[in-house]
Task: inverse folding
């Protein structure tokens, strides 16, 4: 009777094992047959009805079936685990022949590249790099630079006013005044930054662009120092063969004033499309700081003298990298920016 029951359990379990598709199902089968309340345990419980002399034999029988089923369970388990691993490996297969994915990294803007070069030149000459505010008082942008109300130079620059006395700076020259007001002499500084003018956008204009201001104040500074410094600057930036020319000019805050041209580094001065056939390219304004400007910032012009200069950063970048439309500089198209 028990023997038949055991046979029945065994056949049933083997049938179920044959159909098991997952480790979960396998576990269910284990619990149903070998568990505390499983079929084999039930059989052991019914031993009471077996004659005592037959009990060892029946017990042995139950153990044989248990052992056999445990072995089978273990085999099926191994089989299922193997299958699961194979499926996982198949799903995670890496095709090493696929092209690699390139992570796009940023690139320095040509303005940044040019600025870093200019900063390197001047810090190498002992200059400090400072910054002035972009939102500025009229006083710093105009008045303290010897451009009083009604001065024609004030109307020449189309200024964005915020109030009557506050504006977006039209030039970095105000940074000179901030530096002089600190009262620490001598001064050797450059001040790069954004400037604003109410201009329409075209190939050579933008309402926002960048300038680099330079200022040196010390005793016994002469125009020869200005020339020596700016010639060195031009040659380092545009090449050792670069020739330099100073043309008299006028700026309200310097006297005398000049504009500096460099020989066209494209044609060497012969004349080409790049320099509009002139052989020379204008790159900056400069001059000896006007005594009145020194006085307004509490520097005694009888003791101290200085020179100043102002460079357009875009102008340098456009020339150096032969970019013929300024608008490209502000579109942030990486295909453009990555070239420099
Ligand atoms: N601020 C002038 C401009 O925006 C440039 C300039 C000229 C700056 C002469 C200077 C200078 O410091 O000495 O056109």
Result:
């Amino acid at each position: 009777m028990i023997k038949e029951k055991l046979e029945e359990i065994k056949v049933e379990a083997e049938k179920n094992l044959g159909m098991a598709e997952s480790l979960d199902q396998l576990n269910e089968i284990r619990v149903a047959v070998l568990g505390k309340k499983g079929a084999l345990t039930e059989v052991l419980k019914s031993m009471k009805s077996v004659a005592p002399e037959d009990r060892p034999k029946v017990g042995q029988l139950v153990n044989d079936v248990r052992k056999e089923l445990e072995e089978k369970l273990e085999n099926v388990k191994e089989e299922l685990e193997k299958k699961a691993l194979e499926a996982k490996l198949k799903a995670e297969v890496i095709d090493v022949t696929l092209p690699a994915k390139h992570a796009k990294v940023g690139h320095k803007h040509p303005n940044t590249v040019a600025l870093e070069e200019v900063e390197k030149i001047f810090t190498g000459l002992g200059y400090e790099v400072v910054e002035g505010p972009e939102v500025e008082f009229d006083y710093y942008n105009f008045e303290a630079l010897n451009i009083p109300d009604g001065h024609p130079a004030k109307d020449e620059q189309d200024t964005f006013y915020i109030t009557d006395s506050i504006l977006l700076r039209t030039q970095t020259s105000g940074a000179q005044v901030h530096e002089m007001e600190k009262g620490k002499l001598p001064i050797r500084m450059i001040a790069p930054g954004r400037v604003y003018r109410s201009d329409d956008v075209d190939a050579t204009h933008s309402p926002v662009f960048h300038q680099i201001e330079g200022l040196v104040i010390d005793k016994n500074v002469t125009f020869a120092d200005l020339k020596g410094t700016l010639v060195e600057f031009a040659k380092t930036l545009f090449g050792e063969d670069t020739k330099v020319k100073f043309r008299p000019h006028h700026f309200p805050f310097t006297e005398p004033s000049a504009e500096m041209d460099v020989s066209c580094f494209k044609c060497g001065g012969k004349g080409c499309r790049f320099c509009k056939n002139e052989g020379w390219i204008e790159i900056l304004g400069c001059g000896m700081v006007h005594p009145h400007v020194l006085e307004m910032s509490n520097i005694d012009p009888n003791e101290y003298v200085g020179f100043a200069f102002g460079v357009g950063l875009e102008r340098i970048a456009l020339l150096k990298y032969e970019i013929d439309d300024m608008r490209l500089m502000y579109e942030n198209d990486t295909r453009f920016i990555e070239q420099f």
Observations:
- The chain has a mean pLDDT of 92.
- The longest helix spans residues 55-91.
